[in-house]
Specification:
The complex is a heterodimer. Chain A is α/β, with parallel strands linked by helices. Chain A is built from nine helices and five strands; from the N terminus they run H-H-H-H-E-H-E-H-E-H-E-H-E-H. Chain A has two domains: 3-85, Methionine synthase domain (Methyltransferase, Methionine Synthase (B12-binding Domains), Chain A, domain 1); 93-220, 3-Layer(aba) Sandwich (Rossmann fold). A five-stranded parallel beta sheet of chain A has the order 2-1-3-4-5, with helices on both faces. In chain A, helix 7 (157-168) links the parallel strand 3 and strand 4. Chain B is globular and about 55 Å long. Chain B has an eight-stranded parallel beta sheet, covered by helices on one side. A two-stranded antiparallel ribbon of chain B has the order 1-2. The chains are: A alpha/beta, B alpha/beta.
Chain lengths: 221, 287
């Protein structure tokens, strides 16, 4: 198998979520002398982006997204230490959680998969995350972005509560705040004072990258 | 054990010897942008259409959720309760996680409502159960707390026991007015989750004999052909002891699966309801 064939197969097997094949092809690629970044950026990430695009179009369904994400995660476990050695930094770091009072996590987990797939480091705090817990995690991990997820109209007001808590702790300006979830709209995100909103997992990654580059440009200026 | 709900002059019984209780779920603005916008403007006209469709589809109780973002949910709930009680004679299930909304809805409601919902969290029980008691309502209870949605059916039963103990012991609410939600989970996220729900239903039935309801469309979340999945799920759940579900009554596939389950499980003597529904359909097709 040559390099192109291997990348093609890695792409195809990630797309269908075949974790054993993805892991074996990743190891084979490394043994052939392909760089971890090439495997990541020329096969795994484009494949997961395609998964996201198909999901968005309604051609792929939740189990298919989850299984592709799992296949990708297996490869990342092998690649992560190698990427660290080459000095490749993650694109950014995001702390994620479903807000207090809300236990829905499928959407949040899909967003996590897309972020990991895009090269972000994701710290997932799970569900029912209190404002205090978000603050502690931001102190500990110093993320670029914090993401609040809510599935219910009745738990959405926790976005505002979280933002208020961050303000009170003097940490509001340290992080980009993104919000999302089934009932959330751009208008609502604006009203509560979030920095970003997206209507689905793929769009969230695109929006996060935009916000990050804006912030970094601002920091350099 | 029978849970009796009342509207102004009507009555619906949820129980193992009654037809399965279909709670229509559509009067809810979640994920409906135009409806949300209308509600923010105080335009309730869409509710009348949704009510008519749910009633025509076979709903026996109507779930009412007025959680439109950036709107006054309390005021909307009061107006919706009055509007719907004027438009039809079905009992209502008042659906909000905001205590003031439930309180205002109960105060406006004429009859015996179903409150949706409490969990095993002490704070929620202590805030909502006194309202349920004062208004003589019934209540849906979810066996999860601030810590977890238990994955183990046995643990869900323990949380249900805690709720039943507090509601009956501390607040004097009769056990028949507690409807447990065994928690329907999406099969698309993990194909073992629905088996857990079915086991929980069987355990709750055996342990307490209580009535149960759940949001049936949850099971098909993220999957294609959702109605077919729910239509297969409901008869299994009914056989295990489920006596009610919150579903979209506009789906003939779902409603028929429930009615067929009633027939097959001997809750439709002589198949009279099944045959009558068939004749009604024939008559409607002929006109």
């Amino acid at each position: 198998m040559n390099q192109d064939e291997l990348l093609r197969q890695l792409y195809d097997f990630t797309l269908v979520g075949n974790a054993p094949e993805v892991l074996s092809l990743t190891n084979q690629g490394l043994a052939m002398g392909l760089g971890p970044e090439m495997l990541l950026y020329e096969a795994l990430i484009p494949s997961l982006e395609e998964v996201g695009a198909r999901f968005e179009r309604g051609d792929f369904f939740v189990p298919e997204m989850l299984i592709a994400g799992r296949a990708m995660a297996g490869a990342l476990e092998v690649l992560r230490p190698l990427l660290a050695e080459t000095g490749a930094e993650p694109i950014g770091k995001i702390v994620m959680g479903t807000v207090k009072g809300d236990v829905h996590d499928i959407g949040k987990n899909l967003v996590n998969i897309m972020f990991e797939g895009a090269g972000f480091e994701v710290i997932d705090l799970g569900v029912q995350v209190s404002p205090e817990k978000f603050i502690d995690a931001i102190k500990e991990h110093k993320p670029d972005i914090v993401g609040f997820s809510a599935f219910l109209t009745t738990t959405m007001p926790m976005f505002k509560a979280n933002i208020n808590a961050l303000q009170k702790a003097g940490m509001r300006e340290q992080v980009i705040i993104m919000v999302g979830g089934a009932p959330v709209t751009q208008e609502y995100a604006d009203v509560v004072g979030a920095d970003g909103y997206a209507s689905d997992a793929s769009a969230a990654v695109v929006r996060a990258k935009e916000l990050l580059s804006q912030r970094r440009a601002l920091a350099r200026a | 054990m029978d849970t009796v709900l009342r509207s102004r002059s009507g009555e619906v019984v949820i129980g193992p010897d009654s037809p399965f209780c279909i709670i229509g779920e559509r009067i809810n603005p979640t994920g409906r942008k135009i409806f949300q916008e209308q509600l923010r403007r105080g335009d309730l006209s869409r509710i009348e259409i949704d009510v008519a469709q749910q009633v025509a589809g076979g709903a026996m109780v109507l779930d009412v959720n007025m959680g439109a973002p950036l709107a006054d949910e309390t005021e909307l709930m009061v107006q919706a309760v009055r509007l719907i009680q004027g438009a039809c004679d079905l009992p209502l299930c008042l659906d909000s996680s905001i205590i003031e909304v439930l309180e205002a809805g109960l105060a406006a409601y004429e009859g015996k409502a179903l409150v949706n919902s409490i969990t095993a969290e002490d704070e929620r029980m202590d805030a909502i159960l006194p309202l349920v008691k004062r208004h003589g309502a019934a209540v849906i209870a979810l066996p999860n707390d601030e810590e977890e949605i238990p994955a183990e059916p046995g643990r869900r039963v323990e949380l249900a026991r805690k709720i039943i103990d507090v509601a009956t012991g501390k607040y004097g609410i009769p056990i028949e007015d507690i409807v447990i939600d065994p928690l329907a989970m999406p099969v698309g996220a993990d194909t073992s989750l629905v088996l857990t729900t079915l086991e929980t239903i069987a355990l709750l039935h055996e342990e307490f004999g209580v009535n149960m309801t759940l949001g049936a469309s949850n099971v098909s979340f993220g999957m294609p052909e959702r109605a077919a999945i729910v239509a297969a799920f409901l008869p299994m759940a009914i056989k295990a002891g489920l006596t009610s579900a919150i579903v979209d009554a506009r789906s003939p596939e779902l409603v028929r699966s429930v009615k067929a389950a009633d027939l097959l499980l001997n809750r439709d003597p002589w198949g009279a309801a099944w045959i009558a529904a068939h004749r009604a359909q024939q008559a409607a097709a002929a006109t």
